[in-house]
Amino acid sequence: MPFFSLPGELRNAIYDQVVYPDSSTIVFISCSSAKDLIAATVLSSPIYRVCRQIRTEAIHRLLATKELKFYDALTVIIFLKYLGKDAHENLRAIAIQVTELPWKPWAGERVGQNADVVATATAVKELAAEMCKLTALCKLDLLYRIQRQSHILIYQKHLKVQLVDALKSKGVDVTARSIRLEKTGTQQLRWTAPTTMN
């Protein structure tokens, strides 16, 4: 019996058994390109290389049934751009924990003390723009670890207004928190308690 003659429920059950059947969360470690994303993540599974229809159905199932967790904004942006419409229409739950936004891809020719601030703002805007395209999103858990005073303003201006508020207005369950890294008197670094950004 040909695979595509099976009912959709059976095909979904097969996809569920092939792609991390014992995990409700898929973690994506830092990637700097679509090539890295495909080689080093769940997207490297052979199921995504069988044919276009199986790839599409398996990705739809992954996005609809798993919570995706990312540890850097660049990887989120690459992932969303790589999957495009599939991600926009099917991704339901995502957690993003950003410690330090990698600013170099957005810095261009800028140099100097403020180059990372300008580039970080650009990266945050791009992340917000990509996230706001997600039409099926139900849940976002965002934790932003702030290491510089200037990044607090970036977080408040761009992530809070352009992403958190925009998604809340669409009915998405959003948990947004920030943690600030502070220097103590002995120059040791410590994280402050999480602050909820409402």
Structure description:
- The chain is α/β, with parallel strands linked by helices and 198 residues long.
- It has one domain (3-196).
- The protein contains eight helices and seven strands.
- It has helices at 8-18, 34-40, 52-65, 73-83, 85-90, 104-107, 115-131, 149-169, and strands at residues 25-28, 67-70, 93-98, 139-146, 173-183, 189-191, 195-196.
- Strands 1, 2, 3, 4, 5, 6 and 7 form a seven-stranded mixed β-sheet that branches.
- Strand 4 (139-146), helix 8 and strand 5 form a beta-alpha-beta unit.
- Helix 4 (73-83) packs parallel to helix 7 (115-131) and helix 7 packs parallel to helix 8 (149-169).
- The longest helix has 21 residues, at 149-169.
- The radius of gyration is 19 Å and the shape is elongated.
- The termini are far apart.
- The model is unreliable at 185-195 (pLDDT under 50).
Mean pLDDT: 77
End-to-end distance, in Å?
A: 54 Å
What order do the SSEs take from the amino end to the carboxyl end, as H and E? HEHHEHHEHHEHEEE
Number of domains: 1
Strand content: 15-25%
Low-confidence stretches: 185-195
Helical content, roughly? Answer: 40-55%
Q: Find the count of extended strands (DSSP E, 2+ residues).
A: 7
Question: What is the radius of gyration?
Answer: 19 Å
The profile of the biggest β sheet is: 7 strands, mixed
- Structural class of the helix and strand makeup? alpha/beta
